[in-house]
């Protein structure tokens, strides 16, 4: 199973108003393990960046002046994501921008070359109804260190989202990855990579274990001795 954790930064909120992608990042996972392969591009949008958007991601038009256009990186991007399932937080936003960029080039929509799209915001709302489910809120909920996220950046956000997604779906205990490129240092540009820490595994305490035993006993009573989990718990 090949999945691509994806995030973008943009000049504004609506591609229908001519806003463009200025940063795109993709991390590859195979069978729920990060492979270390990633794609990260800054993109010259050929237009101004809204002040509100710049305040969120900190990327300036001056920084992007010598960066490639989307047309220059489209083939590399499409080859990287081809056939994979995309994992995106608030997927309609990123998919809308990607399809707008591809439509400008006369290319097919992104979801026609990928094996589906998984929206982690929708998944989080199903798991935690009525709660805040922003990426920062989910990092706090799953004890994932996001202290370096002072501004939004596509590369850092994909790394955090990969950890959040695996935690939400009961993934591996650790995300130790051999990145095939040296980490980006602070000052190399907005959204540099960071060193990951292992996921925190919270064990049930004695009170929770006692509550669990009471629930199993209640089930066993209601089913007249046919609680399937009780023998394992007793063992």
Description:
The chain has 235 residues and is α/β, with parallel strands linked by helices. The protein has two domains: 2-200, Ribonuclease H-like superfamily/Ribonuclease H (Nucleotidyltransferase, domain 5, 2-Layer Sandwich), CATH 3.30.420; 203-235. The protein is built from nine helices and five strands, in the order βββαααβαβααααα. The protein has helices at residues 51-57, 61-64, 70-81, 91-104, 120-127, 135-141, 154-168, 206-222, 230-234; strands at 2-10, 21-30, 33-42, 85-88, 117-119. A five-stranded mixed sheet has the order 3-2-1-4-5, sandwiched between helices. The longest helix is centred in the last third of the chain and has 17 residues, at 206-222. The two termini are 35 Å apart. The relative contact order is 0.14. Mean pLDDT is 85; it is low at 171-188.
Describe this structure in a few short sentences.
38% of the residues lie in helices and 15% in strands. It has helices spanning 51-57, 61-64, 70-81, 91-104, 120-127, 135-141, 154-168, 206-222, 230-234, and strands at residues 2-10, 21-30, 33-42, 85-88, 117-119.
Name a few traits of the molecule.
single chain, 235 residues, alpha/beta, Nucleotidyltransferase, domain 5, 2 domains, five-stranded mixed beta sheet, 38% helix, 15% strand
Show the helix and strand layout.
Elements: E1 2-10, E2 21-30, E3 33-42, H1 51-57, H2 61-64, H3 70-81, E4 85-88, H4 91-104, E5 117-119, H5 120-127, H6 135-141, H7 154-168, H8 206-222, H9 230-234
Parallel strand pairs: 1-4, 4-5
Antiparallel strand pairs: 1-2, 2-3
């Amino acid at each position: 199973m090949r999945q691509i954790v994806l995030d973008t930064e943009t000049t504004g909120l609506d591609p229908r108003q001519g806003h463009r992608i200025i940063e795109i990042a993709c991390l590859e996972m195979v069978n729920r393990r990060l492979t270390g392969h990633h794609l990260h591009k800054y993109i010259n949008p050929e237009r101004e960046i809204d002040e509100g958007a710049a305040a969120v991601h900190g990327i300036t038009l001056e920084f992007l002046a010598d960066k490639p256009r989307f047309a220059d990186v489209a083939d590399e991007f499409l080859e990287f994501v081809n056939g994979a399932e995309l994992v995106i937080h608030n997927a309609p936003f990123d998919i809308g921008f990607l399809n707008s960029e591809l439509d400008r080039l006369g290319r097919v929509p992104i979801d026609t070359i990928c094996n589906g799209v998984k929206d982690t915001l929708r998944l989080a709302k199903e798991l935690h109804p009525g709660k805040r489910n922003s990426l920062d809120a989910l990092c706090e909920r799953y004890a994932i260190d996001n202290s370096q996220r002072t501004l939004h950046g596509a590369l850092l956000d994909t790394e955090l989202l990969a950890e959040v997604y695996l935690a939400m779906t009961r993934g591996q205990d650790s995300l130790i990855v051999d990145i095939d490129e040296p980490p980006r240092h602070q000052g190399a540009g907005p959204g540099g990579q960071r060193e990951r820490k292992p996921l925190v595994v919270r064990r049930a305490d004695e009170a929770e274990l006692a509550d669990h035993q009471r629930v199993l006993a209640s089930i066993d009573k209601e089913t007249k001795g046919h609680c399937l989990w009780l023998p394992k718990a007793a063992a």
